[in-house]
Design a protein that fits this description.
This protein has helices spanning 2-16, 31-50, 53-65; strands at 74-81, 87-93, 99-104, 108-115, 117-125, 128-136, 140-144. It is an alpha+beta fold. It has a single domain (31-144), classed as Immunoglobulins (Immunoglobulin-like, Sandwich). Strands 3-2-5-6 form a 4-stranded antiparallel sheet, covered by helices on one side. A 3-stranded mixed sheet has the order 4-1-7. Strand 2 (87-93) and strand 3 form a beta hairpin. The longest helix has 20 residues, at 31-50. The protein starts with a helix and ends with a strand. This is DUF6759 domain-containing protein.
């Protein structure tokens, strides 16, 4: 009798937890697919980024080599990507006044002129996710790598 009661309880538990149901059609989230979806966006952003790169490089070098001017509302952000994947670093100001989608090639650096402020930085780095909050009031050099 005790075995029958235990077996009945175990059966009810399995049915209640959907352990005996068929697998879901949707399946698990495909993280590789979401990374691949960024490849077209990356190509567009990188092409746009290269259009005025000479002028921006001169401005970024000024920010890196000179003292921080408190009156200037811009500063430099240099991102080094040591991973094997092209990435888009999404920088969103905490006040949401400034949003940047910054393309960085694999095994390379890219530099940008951005408004000073507090930012949330997010990126898909190969199959990993990067998330950080940074105060950017002076020039920043950021290295993103996979483990």
């Amino acid at each position: 009798m005790k075995k029958l009661l235990t077996l009945t309880m175990l059966s009810l538990l399995l049915v209640q937890c959907d352990a005996l149901s068929a697998p879901s059609v949707a399946g698990p989230r495909n993280t590789v697919g979401s990374i691949n979806d960024e490849s077209a966006e990356y190509a567009t952003l990188f092409a746009k980024d290269q259009q005025h790169k000479t002028q921006e490089t001169a401005e970024v070098l000024n920010y890196l080599l000179n003292d921080n001017d408190p009156e200037d509302s811009f500063t430099a952000l240099v991102i080094e990507n040591t991973s094997n994947c092209n990435i888009i670093v999404r920088a969103i100001a905490v006040d949401q006044k400034h949003i940047y989608n910054l393309p960085v090639p694999r095994k390379a650096k890219n530099h940008f002129k951005i408004y000073k402020g507090n930012y949330t930085l997010k990126s898909n780095v190969c199959t990993a996710r990067y998330y950080s909050q940074k105060s950017v009031f002076d020039s920043v050099i950021l290295t993103i790598r996979t483990n």
